[in-house]
Design the sequence.
């Protein structure tokens, strides 16, 4: 599957937005960097999947709690409460994108170096719990 130029630009904006959010947290919760990162993340996501699908994603009934928490955290960052805002945003992010973790973990397990790291005894247990794998199968 090939990406259009708009989608490629959206991937770059999303990645740059995530990098700015991480940098803002590292630099003692700099509210400006976090706010710009949030804007780039949302703009990039809407460029990847389209504006209409983005609005549909955030307004779905099963994603409503995560959407409200994510946007409330964004507002808290804008009013210069970055620590509380990031915590609320993280809660919303986990509620919004938690369904994608098993898919991402399966992808990472198939990578050469990371797959071996995920197979180590202590890490395997943690990754299985995050990925939603049961510790024992019922049969």
Sequence:
């Amino acid at each position: 599957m090939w990406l259009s130029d708009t989608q490629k630009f959206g991937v770059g904006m999303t990645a740059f937005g995530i990098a700015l959010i991480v940098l803002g947290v590292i630099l003692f919760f700099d509210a400006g960097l976090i706010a710009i990162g949030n804007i780039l993340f949302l703009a990039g996501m809407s460029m990847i999947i389209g504006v209409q699908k983005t609005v549909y994603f955030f307004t779905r009934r099963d994603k409503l709690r995560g959407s409200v928490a994510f946007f409330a955290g964004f507002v808290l960052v804008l009013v210069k409460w970055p620590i509380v805002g990031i915590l609320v945003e993280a809660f919303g992010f986990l509620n919004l994108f938690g369904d994608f973790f098993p898919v991402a973990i399966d992808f990472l397990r198939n990578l050469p170096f990371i797959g071996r790291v995920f197979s180590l005894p202590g890490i395997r247990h943690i990754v299985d719990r995050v990925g939603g794998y049961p510790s024992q199968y019922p049969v």
